[in-house]
Amino acid sequence: MERISYQELPQGVFTGMLKTEEHLRQCGISTKELELMRYRTSQINNCAYCLDMHFKEATHAGESPLRLYSVSAWRETPYYSEREQAMLALAEALTLLPEKGVHEDLYEELRKHFSKEEIANLTLAVAQINAWNRVATCFRFTPGNYKVGQH
User: Fold this and answer.
1) pTM for the whole structure
2) What is the per-residue pLDDT across 2-20, written as a single tens digit (0 to 9) for each?
3) Distance CA 111, CA 135 (A)
4) 123, 94 contact by CB (below 8 A)
5) Long-range contacts of 26-34 (CB under 8 A, 24+ apart)
6) What is the 8-class DSSP label of residue 90?
7) Which of 9, 69, 94, 115 sits 20 to 30 Å CA-CA off 106?
8) For residues 143 and 125, what is the distance between their CA atoms, to the nearest angstrom?
């Protein structure tokens, strides 16, 4: 049962988060890539509301349902580019944050596919979706009714 609906939240609660979202929309990383990463992160965090939202946003951005269904097994499938694999590895590493942080090998793989600015923006995007997952999970936003572009 929903504890607090998205509409009931005080406007100031998300002011900074919404500014971050605006930055991410304009940072140069494709919506399709960001939505794939957001979907995978939401899987790890078991956030039903965000899974619903980002599945719909990703398919709207041109992502295939097959790649979304399979993303939890991205290492075992041929569907993801090396760039996407590096992005997904970063998302998993930052979401599950190992005691010793992001391994040097992962960072070097990221540098093959992303600029330093893009890595910084990806890091921010992973942190942002983790924050949204925690908000949606705490307040138990109701999944299933999200419409593309709603937020």
Assistant:
1) 0.91
2) 898 777 878 787 788 889 9
3) 31
4) yes
5) 27/117, 27/118, 27/121, 28/117, 28/118, 28/121, 29/118, 29/121, 29/122, 29/125, 30/61, 31/57, 31/61, 32/58, 32/61, 32/62, 32/63, 33/83, 33/84, 33/87, 34/125
6) H
7) 69
8) 21
Calpha distance 16→69 (Å, rounded): 31
pLDDT digits (tens, 9 = 90+) for 12-67: 877 888 899 999 999 999 999 999 999 999 999 999 999 999 999 999 999 999 99
Q: Which two tokens mark 109?
A: 């793989």
* 73 close to 80: Cβ distance less than 8 angstroms: no
CA 66 to chain centre: 17
